Amino acid sequence: MRLGDIDGLLPLERELFAGDPPWTAEIFRSELTDMPGTRWYVVAEEYGGRQVVGYAGLRLPAVAGEPADVHTIAVASDWQRHGLGSRLMDMLIEEAVAHRAGSIMLEVRSDNEAALDFYADYGFQRLAVRPAYFHGGRDALVLRKSLDVSTGERSDESDGDNRCL
Description:
The chain is of the alpha+beta class. It has one domain (about 5-145): Gcn5-related N-acetyltransferase (GNAT) (Aminopeptidase). About 25% of the residues lie in helices and about 30% in strands. The chain has four helices and six strands; from the N terminus they run ααβββαβαββ. The chain has helices at about 5-15, 25-35, 85-100, 115-120; strands at about 40-45, 50-60, 65-75, 105-110, 125-135, 140-145. The chain has a six-stranded mixed beta sheet. The longest helix is centred in the middle third of the chain and has 15 residues, at about 85-100. The radius of gyration is 15 Å and the shape is globular. The two termini are about 15 Å apart. It comes from Phytoactinopolyspora halophila. This is Ribosomal-protein-alanine N-acetyltransferase.
């Protein structure tokens, strides 16, 4: 993701995270410019670069063995259930492994069944509950997936495609 991608992904951010509230352009800019050595983001565009259809971001571990944190993952409604979310998650996991993260963590709304099923398929396990973490008093579930830093490989043997559209 580059600074020039921000305007293109904001409509998607507002659509998918309307009640949470969505991140602003300033938050994305801060993530990309203020902390470039500790963050990693990817954007997926429709063929030909006409429209942003997904994006994901990760806070990298400061030292080997620490967790990486998924800051965001989003896929346009029309592109959901077509493998794009899996491509984005594969890329986040691969980047976390490349930076020797011991695990990868995230927060997800406790009422987001589709996301919970998606993360369960990736082997994420429930670690904790953060009461009223999201807007409107909705709880967050803290999920974690262990990674194998000794070999530099993911602890599951998926062979995801690294290309994003």
